[in-house]
Amino acid sequence: MQQTLVLVKPDGVRKNLIGEVVSRFEGRGLKISALKLMKISEAQAKSHYAEHEGKPFFSELVEFITSGPVAAMVVSGENAIKAVRGMMGATNPLDAVPGSIRGDYALSIGENIVHGSDGEDSAAREINNFFKAEKIF
Question: What is the pTM of this model?
Answer without folding.
Answer: 0.95
